[in-house]
Amino acid sequence: MTEKQTFHVNGYLALVVLIGLLVGGGYLFYHGFVNESVLEIVLSILLWIVSFLFLSSLTIVQPNQAKAILFFGQYLGTIKDNGLFVTTPLTQKINVSLKVRNFNSSLLKVNDSDGNPIEISAVVVFKVVDTAKALFDVDYYQDFIEIQSETAIRHIATQYPYDTFNDDDLTLRGNTSEVSEELAKELQERLAVAGVEVIETRLNHLAYATEIASAMLQRQQAKAILSARQIIVEGAVSMTQMALEQIEDGQDINFTDDRKVQLINNLLVSIITDKGTQPVINTGDVKEKGV
């Protein structure tokens, strides 16, 4: 079902006309009663009935609200204009809010793509753009939005790891903007049937589950140390190689293999260690003379 406009006219102008009809009906009734004219009496009664029917159809539409009009179960259309209006008599008028609203999901426990249990929740900003779909295509669209939002959050959480030390990988913790955009896209596909537009989604809570939080913290620390050590070793090897090349090329010095190994070892130790190194001065080989 698709939203459409229904018959409605300005209520102030219609109110003036209807009051005029009531007054005209009263005059006809009095004139017919005095002249004993049945036709005028019947006509005055019809005018009163029509006037009261349209007066009963007066409706007020507040800003950022709409009213869906049903005539004995049939959807006639929706009034989205703000103000006082007269519409089809004997109709049911259902209020639908068009305001931007927030939905804060409950705290969900799911497994990420690595199988680690995590806690996650999100805020969904949405508004109704099609009142017909919201009212008639789903049952209680507010509940539909809540259930579909939590389902989408669970599905997105299982597609990515919580964290990783590979910069090329998308993670829930390190790429919240990309994950939120993917969540909004999936939610829009799910909620289109309810005539709802998803404006924005944001993760507002993300953490490891309490039962593994301590262990995963140690794992993160270990991975961080290994990652840092890897960068340090790569830099130390590069610096050592550059130092050897500069010494040999600039000073015309050729090291023996043993000396080169010793120099490499000393340079790597001095660069990699996180403590201050003690310099050792090599005075060369000393041979004892026999007595």
Automatic annotation (TrEMBL):
Sequence ranges assigned to domain Band in this UniProt record: 56-220
Keywords: Membrane, Transmembrane, Transmembrane helix
SMART domains named among the record's database cross-references: PHB (SM00244)
Xref: SUPFAM superfamilies: Band 7/SPFH domain
Stretches that traverse the bilayer: 12-29, 41-61
InterPro entries named among the record's database cross-references: Band_7, Band_7/SPFH_dom_sf
Gene3D superfamilies: Band 7 domain (3.30.479.30)
Pfam families for the chain: Band_7 (PF01145)
Protein name, UniProt field: SPFH domain-containing protein
Source organism (scientific name): Enterococcus entomosocium
